[in-house]
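WARN  no MSA supplied for this record, continuing single-sequence
INFO  ligand: zinc ion
INFO  echoing inputs
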Amino acid sequence: MLGSVARKLRIFGFDTLYVAHVEDSEVLKIGIDQDRIILTADKEFFKRIVKVNAKGVLVGGSNEVEDIVHILEKYGITSIDGIGICSRCSICNGQLAEASSKEVQTELPEKVALLHKEFFRCTDCDKVYWEGSHIKRIRELAKRIDLDLGKDHKAN
Ligand SMILES: [Zn+2]
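INFO  complex generated
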């Protein structure tokens, strides 16, 4: 359910693990062992997280922008601008490294190779990224989230 939130958090540069089809107790164990903040839309599971003193955030699960703002606010993050947008692979959470167009050109659609100059490759799964319209949308979304974060900051 929170897969899309997880992918966005990765794109914004947060180290985000996404587990599906895993028992709640296993998620709890991973959260505690790896000192991670557990995100869930399940109220009963959230109660368990609180009970064992693990870190967690209960999200609505229906509006991803609201959820992301809520998560960041809870941990005192007032801007995602400097976190490292596009430093992480949205698919596997690996770190991205710059790659030259020569290195990646055989793996790209011809048009992409012609139109873009900046490329990145995931150091874990090898997926290639480039500065395209997708990243532009992500930066716009980041701006919107930063605005929302600022709003509540002022209200407090
Ligand atoms: Zn990857």
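Helices lie at 3-11, 24-33, 43-51, 64-74, 101-104, 110-115, 133-155.
INFO  checksum written, moving to next record
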